[in-house]
Design goal:
Strand order of the largest sheet: 1-3-2
Order of helices and strands: EHEEHH
Shape: globular
Largest sheet: 3 strands, mixed
Radius of gyration: 15 Å
Number of helices: 3
């Protein structure tokens, strides 16, 4: 059985960085995200524990093979200035623009749905 994984703005399940002040995820923002997208030709392997409670300086007891989410998120999110400039339509078609908190909340929901009780 294949494992799938949510990517947040270019970072896999790590908590690298924090949300900006005032960046609050809402259920509506999470629901507005398109569904994860996977490419059968792209696979990743990790020797780090999938749990957020474990340190990234430890190794997992087994290797995790998974397909990463291939959605493209703009790192500037809803504050992206390219959306308002020339070519903004093309940029908005290529990249998803949402808040960092919405992406992290969606990842938390996805991880909880895949984790054993």
């Amino acid at each position: 059985q294949r494992q799938q994984h949510v990517s947040h703005m270019g970072h896999s399940a790590s908590r690298a960085g924090t949300a900006r002040a005032g960046d609050v995820a809402t259920p509506e923002a999470v629901a507005a995200l398109p569904p994860p997208s996977y490419d059968d030709g792209i696979w990743m392997a990790s020797c780090r524990p999938a749990s957020q409670r474990k340190s990234m300086s430890t190794f997992a007891s087994s290797l995790l093979l998974f397909q990463p989410d291939c959605r493209l998120f703009c790192s500037k999110g809803t504050d992206c200035k390219l959306l308002r400039g020339p070519g903004g339509d093309v940029h908005s078609e290529l990249f998803i623009h949402t808040t960092r908190s919405a992406v992290l909340l969606a990842a938390d929901i996805d991880l909880a749905s895949r984790s054993p009780p």
